[in-house]
């Protein structure tokens, strides 16, 4: 009797693996579509926004500072906050672009 029970437990077949690993695979698929994929879309949109920055754009930094881009390099952005104040930030510190004033200056 004991030997027969161990044989049945030793060879569960495909149904046993499906019952064992099915919920794990299902959880991964749900996490992918609810967490990983939307995050990748947001990151792609942010990278696109950062690469499309240009002179004259009005931006808001991560710290909440509002300014207008007056110079750009690959890594830095120089913002004009008021008539005399210029501040240098990393390009990645730009959070949003409020508007584009084009080449008004």
Automatic annotation (TrEMBL):
Q: Name one GO biological process term.
A: protein transport
Naming one, the record's GO cellular component terms include:
plasma membrane
Q: Where in the cell is it found?
A: Cell membrane
Instruction: Tell me the keywords, alphabetical order.
Output: Cell membrane, Membrane, Protein transport, Translocation, Transmembrane, Transmembrane helix, Transport
Main location group = membrane
Cite the SMART domains for this sequence. Answer: YajC (SM01323)
Q: Does the keyword Transmembrane apply?
A: yes
What the entry lists under InterPro entries is as follows: Preprotein_translocase_YajC
Q: How does it sit in the membrane?
A: Single-pass membrane protein
> What family name appears in the similarity comment?
Belongs to the YajC family.
- Any idea what this protein is called? Subunit YajC of preprotein translocase
Source species of the chain? Paenibacillus naphthalenovorans
């Amino acid at each position: 009797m004991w030997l027969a029970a161990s044989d049945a437990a030793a060879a569960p077949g495909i149904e046993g693996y499906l019952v064992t690993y099915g919920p794990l695979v299902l959880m991964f698929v749900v996490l992918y579509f609810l967490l990983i994929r939307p995050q990748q879309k947001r990151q792609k949109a942010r990278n696109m926004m950062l690469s499309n920055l240009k002179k004259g754009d009005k931006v808001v930094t991560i710290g909440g500072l509002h300014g207008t881009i007056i110079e750009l390099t690959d890594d830095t952005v120089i913002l004009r906050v008021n008539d005399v104040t210029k501040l240098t930030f990393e390009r990645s510190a730009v959070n949003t672009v409020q508007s584009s004033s084009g080449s008004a200056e």
